[in-house]
Specification:
Layout lengths: L2 E5 L6 H8 L4 H7 L8 H8 L10 H20 L4 E4 L2 E4 L6 E2 L3 E4 L5 E9 L15 H14 L3 E8 L3 E8 L2 H19 L10 H10 L12 H32 L4 E4 L2 E9 L2 E7 L1 H10 L3
Parallel strand pairs: 6-7
Antiparallel strand pairs: 1-3, 2-5, 3-4, 5-6, 7-8, 9-10, 10-11
Helix pairs in contact: 2-5, 3-7, 5-6
Protein name: Putative phage-type endonuclease
GO molecular function, one term: endonuclease activity
InterPro entries: Lambda-type_endonuclease, NF-kappa-B_Signaling_Reg, PDDEXK-like_dom_sf, Restrct_endonuc-II-like, YqaJ_viral_recombinase
């Protein structure tokens, strides 16, 4: 392999956070490219600068950690001829800012070293046919990053959806994609060194970080650009119109769906009915649709 072993660190620990401060990990590279649903380039930049706190732990993250050993055992049972081992944390031997923390390392019965990444999800939306590489794009970024760091050529994903449905996917190393990720990663670290703040974007974490940066309220006034004020006023009007129209379309989709969980149009996932705490199910956009819209409207 092309990597140096750094040790084993508990995700979220002070040691783990300190290590990530000096480089880029696999779960961060998608944010650098604006492809992460969990982190924006803006929010990640501020965390790397020490201006914003690390993302807080939440229930989905904790559930993923608790379920990881079980899903790893399911994968090992499905491939008894392979050796599946704990991985730890690695960095590239030359590009030491490139950090990888894969879930497991595999040795096949033919002696090949490969990766295993473990994921849990509420449902299978966004995941394609098992056995293919049809996985959410931010996970693809993460896996290609790990393969690039370790100098390996194949990764397996073991995914548990809905708490019981198990599936596997395979991602092969792509030199072109790895080079793209690496170039963007290097440029992002340059902006940190040169204190070049990213532009504000539409990501929820961008707004959250800005709120966290200014927790107090002073009895003061500021002058903002006229164009920004115009955009804000127009948005307030458009938002009301869009909200009303969306409510109607959601109601129509719900009427079509009845008790069904999923709605498709011409083979494409559109919506999903989800349980509400203490209430009746509600209609939400299919994750795959959300990602498609995000990509189509990406600057």
């Amino acid at each position: 392999m092309t990597a140096d072993y750094l040790g084993t660190y508990e995700p979220g620990s002070d040691e783990w956070q300190a290590l990530r401060t000096s480089g880029l990990g696999g779960s961060e590279i998608a944010a650098v490219l604006g492809l992460s649903p969990y982190e924006s380039r803006f929010s990640l930049w501020h965390r790397k600068q020490g201006l914003a706190d690390p993302q807080p732990d939440h229930a989905a993250m904790r559930a993923g950690r608790y379920l990881e050993p079980a899903v790893a055992a399911m994968f090992a049972d499905a491939h008894p001829e392979w050796t599946v081992e704990q991985s730890g944390t690695w960095c590239h031997a030359e590009r030491r800012w490139q950090i990888a923390n894969p879930d497991r390392l595999i040795t096949t019965d033919q002696g090949h070293r490969e990766l295993l990444e473990i994921k849990t999800a509420r449902d299978s939306f966004g995941w394609g046919e098992p056995g293919t590489d049809e996985i959410p794009v931010h996970y693809r970024c993460q896996i290609l990053w790990y393969l690039d760091v370790l100098g390996l050529h194949r990764a397996h994903l073991a995914v548990l959806t809905s708490g019981q449905d198990y599936a596997e996917y395979i991602v092969e190393y792509s030199t072109d994609e790895a080079n793209l990720l690496r170039d963007h990663g290097e440029d992002f670290l340059r902006t940190i060194e040169e204190n070049e703040r990213p532009s504000i974007d539409e990501h929820g974490e961008t707004y959250q970080v800005i709120r966290d940066l200014h927790p107090d309220i002073e009895d003061a006034s500021v002058e903002i650009p006229a164009k920004l004020a115009e955009h804000y006023r127009d948005h307030l009007v458009d938002e009301r119109i869009v909200r009303d129209r969306k409510r109607r379309y959601v109601a129509e989709i719900a009427d079509y769906m009845g008790t069904a969980r999923r709605a498709y149009s011409e083979g494409q996932p559109i919506a999903i009915r989800k349980a509400s705490h203490g209430g009746t199910p509600h209609v939400a956009p299919a994750p795959a649709l959300t990602r498609t819209i995000s990509q189509e409207n990406k600057p």
